[in-house]
Amino acid sequence: MPLLPRRQPVGLPAMVQDFLPAAGESAPETLQRGIDLQRRKRFREAEFCYQTVLRRQPKNAMALNLMGTLAIEAQRIETAIDFMKRAVKLEPGNAIFRNNLGNAYNLVGNIEQARKQLKKAIELDGRLVEALCNLGKSYRSQLEGDIAEGFYRRALAVDGQSLTALVGMGELLTDMGRQAEAVECFGRAIAIDKANVEALSGLALARRAVKGDPALALVRGRLELPMTTDRERVILHHAAGKILNDQREYRLAIHHFARAKAISGNDFDIALHTRLYDSFIETFDAGFFEARPKFGNPSERPVFIVGMPRSGTTLTEQICASHHDIHGAGELPTIRSLAGELGFDQLDPAIFAKAMAALTPAKARELGSKYLDHLNKRNGKAACVVDKMPHNFELLAFISLILPNARIVHCRRDPMDNCTSCFMHNFSDTHGYNADLTKLGQYYRQYDRLMRHWAKVVPLAIHDMPYEKTVADFETQARGLIGFLAVEWDDACLRFHETERTVRTPSRWQVRQPIYSSSVERWKLYGDALDPLRAALGPLVQP
């Protein structure tokens, strides 16, 4: 089962025969050779070593575990889980194998299995720092910051010099709005290793840089090291851009953001994406919904905040979550997962459209109830639970059928400001449209087109939350939002920046500040560097 020839990390070097195991080499020696090669990012040779052992010893648990770690390098997480499960089955008392399997489950979002394996690893070895940190990461991913902090503190009690624990704690504290403590953690990590990419990036994101900030020199120095991988260069260019942006060096900042995107090399297919939206607009017209009046679960608890990323979705959720009877659940993958049962994740858009047309009232209710079960695990008491996955805007037709009484809050922002802000953030590969300014502008136009269609045909309650109006007249907009959610007013919503909760989005720093308007028309600071975006947005740009 070769891993890397099919999907290789960028810049993977050609295999070198001299690195491969010699005839007669023992299995432990070959595995150690593979480990050394993997650490040097010689992935093909490492795989050859592990596979050599498995050909002779198919039940070698260490070789299976190492193949799993290599599969993670190749971004083939399900394959990694398969290898690691086999290793754990062979050696159930091995804490390291349990930890690695738990980490892999974390990566695919299987929180239940991740925690099961990680807790077992800690039971086997209470001083295994990696397992403590991975369990902390699991709770952090579910916005359970207080529990996550406990595991990171346990890890630091075992090893106060652990870079994994220091960086993990720093990222968590940033999520929790405790910037000064986060900066201290990242600083401790950098004092141990000035070239640690995650610590340098975390420090850049955790606070506003001032002129002469020494972190910029460290970031630039790390960029110049030949050992720096393309993935690391993307992170570092974003960090440099953030620091320079803080220092009002806007032209230099946008250069670094552009370099990061160029290195990422994402090949997002805007034509295929456009055909997907074409199929939605063609299939899901007003008549489609009129023919399906009594579908889904009638609960009024779900609230969906949708829109482009960086359009004010986190601010809007923070206003809601400051209310005593509203729970902010963060960005949930649940709706997209449920839509996947109808083929939403297939390349052929006709599959999902046909499945939606064939959806029965019973199946729609079942899917709606599944979603509510997930919400209840997050919070079973609040009058409203907010799901702020921005890209759920694509699935308003699906939401309408399975949760007809859900409320939709649509966050809108000036297209140039919105897209510029997206471009300056290091989103995951799923945001491939963010790869360059032209595709970003084209994607925004498709988003705008689809939302205009939904507004005409989808029988859901939709409330617009324009970013510019929100920062200009905050109280009026906040009161309108809470009124739309049909709960009584709570003055805490005006003090959203004081609300203590874990926030895991690029806006986590901003929502800790009182309302400000400096992000309005910010795109003008970057001059002609944004000309490709302006051209791609075309008529959506205000004259």
Automatic annotation (TrEMBL):
Gene3D superfamilies from the UniProt entry: P-loop containing nucleotide triphosphate hydrolases, Tetratricopeptide repeat domain
SMART domains: TPR
One annotated GO molecular function: protein-tyrosine sulfotransferase activity
Pfam family, one: Sulfotransfer_3
TPR repeats: 61-94, 95-128, 163-196
InterPro entries noted in UniProt: P-loop_NTPase, TPR-like_helical_dom_sf, TPR_rpt, TPST-like
PROSITE patterns for this protein: TPR
Keywords from the UniProt entry: TPR repeat, Transferase
Domain of life: Bacteria
Protein name as catalogued: Sulfotransferase
Species per Swiss-Prot/TrEMBL record: Mesorhizobium mediterraneum
